[in-house]
Amino acid sequence: MFFQKEIETMPRKELEALQLAKLKETVAYCYNKVPFYHQKLTEAGVGDGSRIRQLSDVQYIPFTTKEDFRNNYPFGLNAAPMKDIVRIHASSGTTGKPTVGVYTKKDIDVWSDCVARVAVAGGVTDEDIIQISFGYGLFTGALGLHFGLEKIGATVIPASSGNTEKQMMMFRDFGVTGLVATPSYALYLSEAVKEAGYPLSDYSLRLGILGSEPCTPEMRAQIEANLGIYVSDNYGMTELGGPGVSGDCPERDGMHFAEDHFLPEIIDSATGERLREGGKGELVVTTLSRQGMPVLRYRTKDITSITYEPCPCGRTHARMSKTAGRTDDMMIIKGVNVFPTQIESVLVGMPYIGPHYQIVLRRVNFRDTLEIRVELADAELLERYQELQELQRSMHDRLKSVLGLEAKVTLVQPKTLERFQGKAKRILDLRNEPQA
Amino acid sequence: MFFQKEIETMPRKELEALQLAKLKETVAYCYNKVPFYHQKLTEAGVGDGSRIRQLSDVQYIPFTTKEDFRNNYPFGLNAAPMKDIVRIHASSGTTGKPTVGVYTKKDIDVWSDCVARVAVAGGVTDEDIIQISFGYGLFTGALGLHFGLEKIGATVIPASSGNTEKQMMMFRDFGVTGLVATPSYALYLSEAVKEAGYPLSDYSLRLGILGSEPCTPEMRAQIEANLGIYVSDNYGMTELGGPGVSGDCPERDGMHFAEDHFLPEIIDSATGERLREGGKGELVVTTLSRQGMPVLRYRTKDITSITYEPCPCGRTHARMSKTAGRTDDMMIIKGVNVFPTQIESVLVGMPYIGPHYQIVLRRVNFRDTLEIRVELADAELLERYQELQELQRSMHDRLKSVLGLEAKVTLVQPKTLERFQGKAKRILDLRNEPQA
């Protein structure tokens, strides 16, 4: 089950020769087309990359960070003229400004290939009817999977997220064979299917292609049992163009990179040094094919390890283990990136409230919930219920507007939240706690 | 400004010869591939259509109605095997079941052509940066425009709907030149842009391609003035494959059908008789190119008229005037089809409430709002506020789940809503009332 067998099983020597050629091309392209990279590469003495002799020379190239994306918002990292750009995607950034990705026609084509590989490796064929329950829009997940699955020739149902009853109705009525969703939404849906009480024989579901947030083995097992399906996982992010960077093969023992399009490394996130094979550290990725927005050594902040060992599935491309946390305080809630700074930006300047707040994450019915506990400035205020209700609603609406997420706002009495010496502990992540 | 000039300006004689050939093909295709049509065509004596001699013979073909879609839910009207279907779209039906449309690869291609014609006629070029603020997902509007605009080579921003602040931020930051939205959302956004206070010179907006609900000349003028843009209108519906059925040319004196793909007629909705050119009645459309779901003489329930007069723009395809209401009680709210039966299906069986309710539509800040006034069964109940709050929330959530729309639920005292002899007047449409 391969989408592009020749490439996916290419001997490593050939693959690495291809990577080296594309790395040199990419460095020259960045040097010539993106002033930001021109300056960085010049300062680092790498120049247009013509002196790069081996893949490990990538270590002399400076890193690109989330901050570089922010500082170059929106189009400072573009390498192609806007006339050649056919799509713009975006995800939440660390501040109010989103992280932007731009695509040429060829970028969309390569992206669709990468996604198609992941989907075919997960068992999708042109006879499948796939319901995409990612939220459609600026988010790369939904349209990324959509184009990849249409490329395979599968039937795509652009269900988007939410509306559980309708999702389940379509499962049954449309003979849906595959689900694309975040692991947490898939788990939630699988519980809803169980509760709805129809026998599994009323469903034709046989596989799930999950992604955009980490999926634990326990979640996977639960989803598979509830729906009677086979689940595979995949990995990607807006900065690298979206999903399709890596994905499970039938062995499910590490996700294969699309190494002809991405060059991965693992570094010590403190020193920036490259680690030996198998070492656990921060994933760094260089894009090898992107025209619209090539990225050199992007620090993903995801902690993982890489193996180049041959895989029984026949694929020769390197595998990454499931991510084991992040180096920053970004939260992924229902597949949406959320930074505490975004929440703070909403609260600042609101009337009646003090400077103290706490972010509480829970998993209720297998679904992420986000609660913001905000302290009132004055004890007597709780009396003024109606005004407060209005306040609560206003905070809720503005949070939703900024985050693109539903958040419950709870008002609590002054001085009831814990105070901290030094850095405040604002995040209480209870998602892996047993449910009450 | 044509996307397919040769077809769009084809002499009528040739066009009608093409339509006749395609009509005969379509009838034979339906007769051979769809048992529902086989039976209907046999009963009507039309058979496989081989005796059709002229376009007006279409009158001997039986109508297809919304009820036929419902009775054949989900795939009874499919003419192509599921293996050839690459996409499924859906919109709200009259009951809990959606109206389904299925597409082959060629259907998507033809659809994209039709949308591209509308967009190019509205002024879009490959240099435009277009923000699509339709809700992405099962709704045909967003993905229909998306594929059509990518075909032109424009830069597409899949913004989806909602999150006004972010919409405006993207307008400014991304140099957006065109907006795709419903007229009511465009009007709302245009007011928000005015209020935000940035000078129009901070924006690069120059055009709007609006659709999926009727746009009055007053709305259009207001949107154009607020944003300093040129607005064109277009028409379509899920049953006919989505947007692209007809659209404004630069004359904006009627929307040109894509007559090589659609055969339009106007009938007296009471008698079913065809009207003479220019007569006002119900629009009936036969698809001439669809493979996945061909439709014979679909009764759209939209009231309009058609002219075949030559248009100064050079297009030879017939034009329809703006729709002047509908023959049923379907409401279009923010581009979403809503039937009173859907609302009733949510209310039935809820505790505490009586059988009386009223649907109130308003336009607040140029945005459609939907309020459901529900009468309580018992006067003392209003005391039990918290329980009622829970009830209200539950109704709201279930309505949102069924309609895909935010609806405010108001509880009012028993016996305060008007009673009716005969058919109850449940809809109070105040959208065209002056705002308080």
Automatic annotation (TrEMBL), chains A, B:
| One Pfam family matching this protein | AMP-binding
User: Which InterPro entries did the record assign?
Assistant: Adenylate-forming_Reductase (IPR051414), AMP-bd_C_sf (IPR045851), AMP-dep_Lig_C (IPR028154), AMP-dep_synth/lig_dom (IPR000873), ANL_N_sf (IPR042099), PA_CoA_ligase (IPR011880)
Provide any one GO MF term from the record: nucleotide binding
Q: Does the keyword Phosphoprotein apply?
A: yes
UniProt enzyme class: ligase
The record ties this protein, via SUPFAM superfamilies, to: Acetyl-CoA synthetase-like
Q: Which residues form the AMP-dependent ligase C-terminal domain?
A: 335-431
Query: Which reaction is recorded as catalysed by this protein?
Result: 2-phenylacetate + ATP + CoA = phenylacetyl-CoA + AMP + diphosphate
Q: Which UniProt keywords apply?
A: Ligase, Nucleotide-binding, Phosphopantetheine, Phosphoprotein
Q: In which pathway does it act?
A: Aromatic compound metabolism; phenylacetate degradation
Instruction: Give the E.C. number(s).
Output: 6.2.1.30
Q: Which GO terms describe its biological process?
A: phenylacetate catabolic process
Q: Where is the AMP-dependent synthetase/ligase domain?
A: 77-286
Q: Does the keyword Ion transport apply?
A: no
Q: Which Gene3D superfamilies match?
A: 3.30.300.30, N-terminal domain of ligase-like
Please give the family membership noted in the entry: Belongs to the phenylacetyl-CoA ligase family.
Oligomer and partners: Monomer.
In UniProt terms, what function does this protein have? Catalyzes the activation of phenylacetic acid (PA) to phenylacetyl-CoA (PA-CoA).
Record-given protein name: Phenylacetate-coenzyme A ligase
